[in-house]
């Protein structure tokens, strides 16, 4: 007999290329991790301590469809590489950080920019602009055993065939091992945690009917339709 007093929620998962699913525990997102994006958002690109916000595990959506939210009129695309952890801990050493990575996936941090802007001005948390329903389109995860560790290579987003965002993974201000090590000083990381590693410059709005294509060198493409 189950001890749950209501039906247990369905676990959030990400599909894996070749079969199977990856269970998601937490979603950490780093802000302003590419210098050019920091500049376009009105901030100094100098290397300062990183900061993170969170999405909810069930915000990740592999359906290939992004429903335009009803409470915003300015929804932006932010192309990112997602990093999935197979293990964790606290105070992880930089040289050990990549040992905890299971794989990588293309993803989008969709943002209600108008609602986020209001929250920023009022000194409030960003969740209303970042952690809304299906705000994290994601492609199938690919294992490190198959693709290696991705620390360089083109990351690009097209909308209706037009290049909107382009950069290189080596332009991250805080690299993947640094993000893992830094987060582990404040949180106990664990298997199932994922990190969205930041977006290059060129963020901008989408509208219903748009088709977004994420390309990250070394990974399969992700196509998402705005509906």
UniProtKB/TrEMBL annotation:
<keyword id="KW-0378">Hydrolase</keyword>
<dbReference type="GO" id="GO:0046872">
    <property type="term" value="F:metal ion binding"/>
</dbReference>
<dbReference type="GO" id="GO:0018773">
    <property type="term" value="F:acetylpyruvate hydrolase activity"/>
</dbReference>
<dbReference type="Pfam" id="PF01557">
    <property type="entry name" value="FAA_hydrolase"/>
</dbReference>
<keyword id="KW-0479">Metal-binding</keyword>
<protein>
    <submittedName>
        <fullName>FAA hydrolase family protein</fullName>
    </submittedName>
</protein>
<dbReference type="InterPro" id="IPR036663">
    <property type="entry name" value="Fumarylacetoacetase_C_sf"/>
</dbReference>
<dbReference type="InterPro" id="IPR011234">
    <property type="entry name" value="Fumarylacetoacetase-like_C"/>
</dbReference>
<feature type="domain" description="Fumarylacetoacetase-like C-terminal">
    <location>
        <begin position="27"/>
        <end position="227"/>
    </location>
</feature>
